[in-house]
Amino acid sequence: MDSIFKKDIKLRIGKTVNELSNPTSYNKVYHTPSHGVHMPSTDDLKRIVDLTREILFPGYFGNDILEEDTIKYYTGVNIDSLNRLLVEQIKRGLCFDCITDDTRLKCNDCVGKSENLATIFIEQLPKLRQLLATDIIAAYDGDPAAKSYGEIIFCYPVIKALINYRIAHELVRLNVPLIPRIITELAHSETGIDINPEAQIGEYFTIDHGTGVVIGATCIIGKHVQLYQGVTLGAKSFPIDNDGNPIKGIPRHPIVEDNVIIYANATILGRIIVGANSVIGGNVWITQDVPAGSKIMQSKAKSFQLVDGAGI
Prior knowledge:
- By secondary structure, the protein is α/β, with parallel strands linked by helices.
- The chain has 2 domains: 35-193, serine acetyltransferase, domain 1 (Orthogonal Bundle), CATH 1.10.3130; 199-299, Hexapeptide repeat proteins (UDP N-Acetylglucosamine Acyltransferase, domain 1, 3 Solenoid).
- It is 44% helix and 10% strand.
- It is built from 9 helices and 14 strands.
- The longest helix has 27 residues, at 71-97.
- The chain starts with a helix and ends in a 16-residue tail after the last strand.
């Protein structure tokens, strides 16, 4: 009986292997590497984020004891490592996005393009540091429980999410495919904060608590904006073409102007404008423009007194 049982198991497993190996089964989910180039590496992209964080926040991450007269060398080593990793991952992203069937191409152009894009990104690091510094200030000023900027940098999920987002957005600006989305999704899985790398977010931005926040690809957010947990800046239903496919690339997410506060679990949908200096209360649903200086709240709750079990 044992031998018959084992034979049956092998046959069943063999059948499954054959089904999974049939091109009609996997052709929609299989990626054929362009010109033999590997897929992007999530491990290397994590390392890119970690290195960038060490460079931007010296003493907080990586080597926590640095001297002023040696930090230049420490930063140089990290920049060199970052550059090498970026060149390779950008090249892989470009090859992943390549749609040519010309097998004669050897990706020489992509190598040179990757090196140039990596250099341009590295040149933006001083600007990234300044921008993230404003986010840290906003997080500190917006939370009475915060005791120091260091606590914000070390502990607050919004800074983790914004570091990834700011890095990814710079790569989006350079038209690097795929890589930016992977980087923001790394933070999304860790923090619960989902920021599309294509969104445009101004300085002094913060999210208190953070979990469950969604910021869509075509969002435009001004300066000094504060969100709370569970806020959705999303899209309504979008148009489809004659073949029934969704039309891509159209503006479909909100514009949030300067000095706006949006409280927990508010849902704001569509290409609408939330005017400057407005306050959006928690748990509201908004699909129309909000004039500047508005205060949008839920209607007041009704209070009932139940006596001796009566009421519901």
